[in-house]
Amino acid sequence: MRRVIKAAAVATVAALGLAACGSESGGEGGKTELDLLVPIYSDKTKPYWENLVKAFQEENSDIQVNLEVQSWDNIYTVLDNKIQNQAAPDILELDAAGPAYGSEDLLYEAEEIVSPETLADIEPTFIDSAKIDGVAYGLPTVASTRALFYNKDLLTQAGVTAPPKTWDELMAAARKISDLGGGVHGYGMPLGSEEAQAETSIFAYGAGASWESDGKMTIDTPEAREALTFMKEMIDAGVTQPDPGATDRTPLLDVFIQGKIGMIQGLPPIVGQINEKNPDLNWDIAPSPTPDGEPSTLGVADYFVGFDKGEEKQEAISKFLDFFYQQDNYLEFNENEGFIPATKSGAEAAADKPELQVFLETLPDAKFYPATNPAWGATSGAFKDLVGQIQSKPVDDVLAQIQAKADAPA
Amino acid sequence: MTAPTTARRSRNQALRRRARRQTTLHALPWLAPALILIGGVVLFPVGYMIYTSFRDLTRFGTDRGWAGWENYERVLDLGHLPRVLVNTGVWVVGVVALSIGFGLVLAQFLNKRFPGRKILRMVVIVPWAASVVMTSTIFVYGLDPFYGIINKFLVDVGILDAPFGFLKSPLPGFLSAMAVAVFVSVPFTTFVLLAGLQTVPHDVLEAAQIDGANRTQTYWRVVFPMLRGALAVATIINVINVFNNLPILKTMTGAIPGYDADTTTSLMFKIIQSDRQIDTASALSVLNFVVVVVVIGIYLRVVRPMRQED
Fold first, then answer.
1. Where is the signal peptide (chain A) (predicted)?
2. How close does chain A come to B38, measured CA to CA in Å?
3. Which of residues 17 through 56 in chain B touch A, CB cutoff 8 A?
4. Minimum distance, in Å, between the CA of residue A247 and any CA atom of chain B
5. Is A242 close to B145, i.e. CB distance below 8 A?
6. Which residue spans of chain A are classified as CATH 3.40.190.10?
7. Which CATH topology does B70-303 take?
8. Which of B274, B275, B277, B280 to mutate: most A Cβ within 10 Å?
9. Is the CB of residue B121 less than 8 Å away from at least one CB of chain A?
10. Average pLDDT taken over every residue of chain A
């Protein structure tokens, strides 16, 4: 959430107009200087970039990279200040708010800042999901999709032989696991304000819903109604944890890791969390169940963008990004952070890692938030505040309420 | 005779006025820091808040011009506003009344001489000194139905049959948040009242004793009236604090969907954070401000706490 807000703040600054970007010219001794701003995912992020920059400069003595790492909490404010002071970084890594600067004419197009070979290697789903008016500005760095984590022991005890593929199977499996009793719940459904939009999107995308059409937010649709109705049925049947509407994601994942929940949707980094907190848990991953078993899930990606400050730095930027996307460098980055590579070659190389297998398979069918649409911020906020009400209110009312918020003039 | 006298008098007056003006001018450099501070941290933000509430702002903060009463209309049109207003009333009155009640008892107790009084007085400060977000977070974990220690305790002791989701539905969530609000407000209230108790002169109490007043009479007829000033301070500051309290509700009931557990302050936050309507939130903020001023005005008029008892 905070990210989204700050992204909005940054976009504000951009919108306030920075037609004239300062030309902080090329550095001394013919060296091209590149300012690189990246967010911190984990303890491994900063050392990774320091090493990468060092290795890059050894190969390219004519380019100097000034690295700056910021926490996710701070990066939007920092970027905000930089853009206001006409000192935008040359290369920026950010979520989908990064490519959104394209609409302010601040960015190089994706094909200008990376070699055609690298561009061809990137999974097109990710590039397409962050296009602004059909133009790609962002190059995906890390990607993630959601998949169903399940507790093998609980499934076996409940007599469920295979992880559910369809919604009917999900319901049946969750019911059997809940019937085990002893504080065990079949399916973990976090609809609390932390990330309710994600859980909802997994089901709604599965039912074929799309939150945006022709630039308009489309929330109150038959597909979404089908998805929310099924979620409500699960809640009413008592096969989820109690009070899904007010349960946040992070605490609920801990309950899964403690072995008290049969199934829950999660991200790749959760693999690392389980290994760290409860390595004895007997778990596995399966694709997110959908109404008829057709693959579909929610995807999220972060992006590199290059700021066009009128300094003709495309070539240097392209050299650096090509270096980053080199197989070894790129795989190390994703391995450190527990995400899945967004390149085809990276995906092949990561394919022999069993725990990432399922996420990689779901990648081509992943659908993204319409994060480049300015109305998405308020829509996502409305999901967080309101969708949990399906527990006690009719689905139609809740969807209409969210649609109204999404349509509110801003 | 009259004419010159009048002339002299008016000249005198003019002189005096000039002298006064000069004194004011001379005092200005010394007053300036305070004036700038008040202007900068009180008057400007209030003025700016009122100004913003009449502007049409985009969700990115771009100003699109005059909005008239539109933002206020949008606030008053909110379907959940009545419920939120009732919540706000219950929240403020309930928390302040309970804090004052507990504060009176605790202050009376801490005013007695007993071994370890100093240590106990310091212990009482802890909930006040600790960060409110931290305190609320501890309760959030403690009340969790899966691994909350408070829930486990209540089940083990036999008060509950099964863990209860205190913070999972509006009413219990709101009441739990109120309990925490009382918990963090009591120390301040206690110390204000304790300070008040210590100003009660000994000879007055002695006189009451000589006149044959029993303990209850002494308290209600002698001590309590002398606490008026302290009670006024404690009440007003608590009303403002409790009314504007966001962290407790945000941490404890923030995950509950809908607006059934919101006060105007937490609703304002949701309008900014989720709906991205800075202008609407400003309008609500102005209304909030007016309500606080009115409530305190009524309190001062009706209770007349500042009136001196002779």
1. 1-19
2. 28
3. none
4. 7
5. yes
6. 2-145+299-368, 147-287+374-407
7. MetI-like fold (1.10.3720)
8. B274
9. no
10. 86
Report the distance separating Cα A64 and Cα A369, nearest Å. 36
pLDDT above 60 for A4: no
Domain at A2-145+299-368, CATH from 2.60.300.12, 3.50.50.60, 3.30.565.10, 3.40.190.10: 3.40.190.10
A101 pLDDT band, cuts 50/70/90, is confident
The complex's ipTM works out to 0.76
- For chain A, give the percent of residues with pLDDT over 90: 51
Check B60 against A374: CB less than 8 A apart: yes
Contact A246 B168 (CB under 8 A): yes
pLDDT value at residue A11: 47
The domain locations on chain B are 2-46, 70-303
Q: How far is CA B204 from each of CA B40, B201, B208, B218, B230, rounded to the nearest angstrom?
A: 46, 6, 6, 10, 18
Domain A147-287+374-407 classified CATH 3.30.450.40?
no
HEC per residue, A80-149: HHHHHCCCCCCEEEECCCCHHHHHHCCECCHHHCCCHHHHHHECHHHHHHCCECCECCCEEEEEEECEEE
A254 neighbourhood in chain B, CB within 8 Å: 147
CA distance B64 to chain A (A): 10
Residue A330: pLDDT over 90:
yes
Q: Which helix (H) or strand (E) holds A300?
A: strand A297-306
Residues 140-179 on B with a CB inside 8 Å of A are 144-147, 165, 167-169, 173
CB-nearest to A245 from B145, B257, B276 is B257
Predicted confidence band at B247 (pLDDT cuts at 50, 70, 90)?
Answer: very high
- B276–A381 C-beta distance less than 8 A: yes
The beta-carbon neighbor of B169 closest among A5, A246, A258 is A246
Least Cα distance to A2 among A130, A95, A86 occurs for: A95
Partner-chain contact B274 A378, CB within 8 Å: yes
Task: Round to whole Å and give the CA distance between B179 and A206.
Answer: 42
What pLDDT sits at residue B308? Answer: 55
Other C-beta atoms lying within 10 Å of the C-beta of residue B138: 15
Residues A16-34: tens digit of each pLDDT: 444 333 334 444 457 889 9
Per the prediction, chain B carries an average pLDDT of 87
Identify the pLDDT of residue A22: 36
Distance from CA of A406 to the nearest CA of B (A): 8
The string of pLDDT tens digits covering residues A356-383 is 888 888 888 888 888 877 788 789 889 9
Enumerate residues 6+ apart whose C-beta is below 8 A from A233.
A171
Distance in angstroms (rounded) separating the CA atoms of residues B58 and A14? 13
Q: Do A381 and B274 touch (CB under 8 A)?
A: yes
A68: exposed, middle or buried (C-beta count within 10 Å: 0-12, 13-18, 19+)?
Answer: middle
Contact at CB, B273 and A16, closer than 8 angstroms = no
Q: Which residues in chain A have Cβ-Cβ distances shorter than 8 Å to B165? A: 242-243, 246
pLDDT at A45 over 50: yes
Q: Do B62 and A245 touch (CB under 8 A)?
A: no
Nearest alpha carbon to residue B303 among B236, B238, B243, B217 = B236
